[in-house]
Each structure stands twice: as C-alpha cells, then as structure tokens.
Amino acid sequence: MAVDPWLALALLCVVNLVAFAAQGIDKVLAERGLRRMSEGTLAMLALPLASPGMWLGMRTFRHKTRKLSFLALAVGVTIVNASVISALIWSFQRGWLTLETAS
Questions:
Q1: First-to-last C-alpha distance (Å) of the chain
Q2: Inter-axis angle of helices 39-46 and 5-31, to 10 degrees?
Q3: For 5-54, what is each residue's pLDDT tens digit?
Q4: Would the pLDDT of 79 be above 80?
Q5: CA-to-CA distance for 26 and 36, rounded, in angstroms?
Q6: pTM, whole model, 2 decimals?
C-alpha cells in the first residue's frame, strides 16, 4: 500500500493542531465558567497520533497539568500513539507500506 508522505504529514499537522487548539479552547471555557469539553473528548482528539499537540497545548495553556486523572489518561493516549507509530515503522520495514508521491 502506497502512502503519500505529503498527505500524511498534512494530516498529522491538522490532527495535532486540533488537539492543541482543544486544550486552549477548554482553558478559555473554564476561565469563563462555561460548559467545557469532557476529558474523554480531549483525549480522543489526541488519539490519531496527536499526543504531541495535546501535550504542547497542556504546557502552553497550563491546562490540565495538575489533574492526575487526566495526566494518567494523557500518558495512556501517548502510549497508544507510540504503539501505532511502532506498528507503522514495522509495516514499512516489512514492505507492507511504502512512501510514494503522487504524480
């Protein structure tokens, strides 16, 4: 199966930007006392290889950094992301996936 590297990179950027922005949006909602995103939603947004965006958003906006239950969830999401990356690398090494640019 051929994967376009530019499309893959674009998708990774988008999902990480969404996970990053979600942390900032939830922080603003919290500061204003409005209805917020659930922790499950924040974690699910990071599942498609977007844990870097989630962690960067947590650090940038100082959001959810002291809540142990969410930190445990974030670590779990990061482990899942690392597992998926490992599976992708393994698939490339086996030749099951290849990088091909669109012509």
A1: 16
A2: 160
A3: 888 899 999 999 999 999 999 999 999 999 999 999 999 999 999 999 99
A4: yes
A5: 6
A6: 0.88
Two structure tokens written together for 85: 């990356």
- Tell me which residue of 85, 82, 84, 46 sits closest to 64, measured CA to CA: 46
Beta-bridged to residue 2, according to DSSP, are 98
Question: Do residues 52 and 59 touch, judged by C-beta distance below 8 A?
Answer: no
C-beta neighbour count of 29 within 10 angstroms: 13
Q: What pLDDT sits at residue 103?
A: 60
Please report, for residues 15, 94, 100, the alpha-carbon distance to residue 46 in angstroms, rounded to integers and kept in the order given.
7, 27, 26
Residue entry with tokens 């690392």 = 82
Alpha-carbon distance 94 to 6, whole Å?
A: 21
Model confidence at 102, pLDDT cuts 50, 70, 90, reads low
